[in-house]
Amino acid sequence: MAEFNIFFWQENFAWIACGVAALISVFAGYADAKRQKRKNIEKVGFMPWTSITVIAGIMAFSSLIYALAGGQA
């Protein structure tokens, strides 16, 4: 039985963070597009999907750059 290697997560944290932030950005972009096409203009909602999309995109891009640099800041 293979051991659980905790160092895998530590060594690849930037890649994992990049993937998670990209998924959040895609989901928030989909939710924002769905909100823009709502039928009842009065039912706005409370989630700032546009801001979440932008912030998650910036996080994905910055963690991608960090991961490509090899984790050396």
Computed over alpha carbons, the radius of gyration is 17 Å
- What is the percentage of strand-forming residues? under 5%
Q: Give the rounded overall mean pLDDT.
A: 86
Q: What class do helices, strands and sheet pairing give?
A: mainly alpha
Unreliable residue runs: none
Order of helices and strands: HHH
Distance between the termini: 36 Å
Helix content: 55-70%
Strands, count: 0
SSE layout:
Elements: H1 6-11, H2 13-36, H3 49-68
Q: What would you note in describing this structure?
A:
- It is a single chain.
- With 73 residues, the protein is an all-alpha fold.
- The chain has a domain at 14-32 and 46-73.
- The protein is 68% helix and 0% strand.
- It has 3 helices and no strands.
- α2 (13-36) runs antiparallel to α3.
- The longest helix is centred in the middle third of the chain and has 24 residues, at 13-36.
- The radius of gyration is 17 Å and the shape is elongated.
- The termini are far apart.
- The model has no long low-confidence stretch (mean pLDDT 86).
Short description:
The chain is 68% helix and 0% strand. By secondary structure, the chain is mainly alpha-helical.
Structure keywords:
single chain, 73 residues, mainly alpha, 3 helices, elongated
